[in-house]
Amino acid sequence: MIALHDVAFAYPQGGFRIHVPHLDIAAGARVAIVGPSGTGKTTVLNLIAGLVVPLGGSVMVDGTDMAALPDAARRRFRLTRIGFVFQNFALIEYLTVLDNILIAARIHPDLPLTPNLRARARDLADAVGMGDKIDRHPGGLSMGEQQRVAIARALLARPAILLADEATGNLDPDTKGRILDLLFDQAARSGTTVLAVTHDHDLLPRFDRTIDFRDLQAAP
Ligand SMILES: Nc1ncnc2c1ncn2[C@@H]1O[C@H](COP(=O)(O)OP(=O)(O)OP(=O)(O)O)[C@@H](O)[C@H]1O
Is 92 exposed, middle or buried (0-12, 13-18, 19+ CB in 10 A)? Predict the structure, then answer.
């Protein structure tokens, strides 16, 4: 489902470089990535999502080489096939909670804003415990509430792949367990492959596999 081969990447500024010889993740797997801060875990999620493009190598996602797609096609692929829970949530302040969950439908014609999709967004808001706050704006929410909205948003289109960057980092232990249950339950229903960066080692037994980021890299 996800296969990185000989991927090299460098940010234009700052000098950070990364080289990933191999990363293979099977369809439907639930995989955690752990590793020290600042080593490139988010960067690898961004490469898989096509948010950044490698200098060389291939990033195969569900049979498509993200590195070889033109910008518009890569964006379209991401919006329709990939759910991404960003570390900083990336919610849009001028939109309500409900409209944030529905954002992909606002910006992409492949995902029309049907009554069914609205109903799914409301169901997801309920499921993450935000059903009574769908008319609020992100600025009026706690960090944990914003995180739950970001998770509902990522699940909206039943993505083939869910990329989660510290998706439960701001939640208390009970809520964390419940939200992870929801995330895995939704993923299982849609056959979604889950790749989650986490610093929370208590959660690791819940994943099928854990990758230590330091084992993934080789010197450029
Ligand atoms: N846009 C950018 N331009 C230049 N350097 C960047 C950019 N984004 C990240 N970096 C640098 O790339 C390195 C890897 O960052 P990244 O966010 O991928 O690490 P991480 O392992 O996810 O860290 P954390 O666990 O703290 O979230 C860091 O040194 C960071 O400062």
Answer: middle
Protein residue closest via CA to atom 7 of ligand 1: 11
| Structural domains in the chain plus CATH codes | 2-215 (3.40.50.300)
ipTM: 0.97
- Residue identified by tokens 């804003």 is 113
Given ligand 1 and candidates 9, 41, 44, 200, which is best to mutate, with the most ligand atoms within 8 Å of its CB?
41
Question: Of 7, 13, 17, 42, which is best to mutate to test ligand 1, by the most ligand atoms within 8 angstroms of its C-beta?
Answer: 42
In this predicted model, what pLDDT tens digit does every residue of 76-103 receive, in sequence order? 899 889 999 998 899 999 999 999 999 9
Which pTM does this prediction carry? 0.94
Please count the other Cβ atoms lying within 10 Å of the Cβ belonging to residue 111.
17
161, 27 Cβ separation under 8 angstroms: no
CA of 192 to the centre of ligand 1 (A): 26
Beta bridge partners of 11: none
Dump pLDDT digits (tens) for 27-50: 999 999 999 999 999 999 999 999
